[in-house]
Amino acid sequence: MRASERGAALLAVLLLVAVMASLSAVALEKMTLSARTASNAAALEQARAFAFGAERYATLRVGDLSALSPERTTLAGGWHGVPVRIPLPGGFASATVVDGGNCFNVNSVVAAADPYAPAGVPPTYVSDPRGIGQLSGLLRVVGVAPNEAEQIAWSLADWIDSDSAPGQAGAEDGVYAGLAVPYRTANRLVVDASELRTVAGVTAQNYAAVKPWLCALPEAVASPININTLSIEQAPLLAMLLPGQLTLDAARAIIAGRPANGWPSLNVFWEEPKIAALNIAQEVRAQTGLKTRWFRLQLDVELTGAQMSETALIDAKSMPARLVSRQWGQD
Q1: Under DSSP, is residue 216 helix (H, G, I), strand (E, B) or coil?
Q2: Is the peptide bond between 320 and the residue preceding it cis, with omega within 30 degrees of 0?
Q3: Do 9-100+294-328 and 104-216 show the same overall fold?
Q4: Sequence-distant (≥ 6) Cβ neighbours of residue 160 within 8 angstroms
Q5: Residue 328 forms beta bridges with which residues?
Q6: What sign does the dihedral 63-65-67-73 (CA atoms) show?
Q7: Average pLDDT over every residue of 239-246
Q8: Percent over 90 (pLDDT), the chain
Q9: Across residues 231-239, what is the average pLDDT?
Q10: CB 138, CB 210: distance < 8 Å
Q11: In DSSP terms, which residues pair with 278 in a beta bridge?
């Protein structure tokens, strides 16, 4: 062996060992990642299964609440907004139920053109001035400028209705086609209230201001406000019913003065001193009620290695109560 070749074999072996060690490290890292991914997927599936069980529990609880008081839904019993902790193997679920109808239904800015259309026929929706006026009034109550409020309300109606003609201050496909990232109107009911962010005239600021009072019920009807479950923080919803007549402070005072067991009837409520002298349309009276139909469920599941959140809507119009929609995560 020549002197210049001494150590070549050792160097080759060392290089081979280094390459094998690198390959082993990469393979081990990928195996570890795959194992963790599989473990997380299994944990998420387990959490989802527990969430389905918690849904059933909450639905039964809503059914019991409705059966306990068939004529009125009040805050008695401390059910509203109080998290119920459900122990689970390796974790827990937290279920919180609130009145899901005390909100502005964004789908109420339209109405079915033919409410008596045969079942199975896709409905045709047209703008509803009453719902548009209520949304505009709600936006003004929470601080949105009047001209912006009117534009947003009419644009939302155009977003949902079945035609392509812009409304009084609305926007149809032509407006959205000119954006940097063009898109078209949905021409269908809104599934989640966060969809409002895609509507012309809506900014991050005014969406944040009105977001707490919005919901998307699966029908184009005015939100059924239960006066016996309204919180003081939800006073804008009461002021919304009487835009320009009932101030936000007056609405808060009315809710704060509610009897401990709730108002026994709508007539007693509408005879409250702060609203008895107002000019109240029959359709406004009809939008208030004493019985809750829609309940909203906030569900959080925590297991070892997994966290999952869900928002669901429960319909208690008829018994047994049933879950009609769910959304994983939060917007």
Answers
A1: coil
A2: yes
A3: no
A4: 107, 109, 110, 125, 185, 186, 187, 188, 189, 190, 220
A5: 310
A6: negative
A7: 86
A8: 58
A9: 93
A10: yes
A11: none
* Architecture of domain 104-216 in this structure: Orthogonal Bundle (1.10)
Of 91, 81, 153, 100, give the one whose Cα is nearest residue 301.
91
Block residue for tokens 């050792």: 10
Do residues 160 and 189 lie in contact, with contact meaning Cβ atoms separated by under 8 Å?
Answer: yes
Topology (CATH level 3) of domain 9-100+294-328: Pantoate--beta-alanine Ligase; Chain: A,domain 2 (3.30.1300)
* pLDDT value of position 231: 93
Measured distance CA(150)–CA(185) in Å, rounded:
18
| pLDDT value at residue 262 | 92
pTM given for the model: 0.82
Place of tokens 């201001």: 209
Q: pLDDT value at position 279?
A: 82
Cα(139)–Cα(148) distance, integer angstroms = 9
| Cα 88 from Cα 301, distance rounded (Å) | 9
Reference 80, options 52, 102, 108, 113; nearest CA is 102
- Residues 196 and 176: their CA atoms lie apart, in Å, by 14
Q: What digits encode the pLDDT tens for the residues 99-154?
A: 999 999 999 999 998 877 777 778 899 999 999 999 999 999 999 999 999 999 99
Going by the DSSP 8-state scheme, the letter that residue 80 receives in this structure is B
Length of the chain: 331
- Comparing 31 with 313, which gets the higher pLDDT? 313
In the chain, what are the domain boundaries?
Answer: 9-100+294-328, 104-216
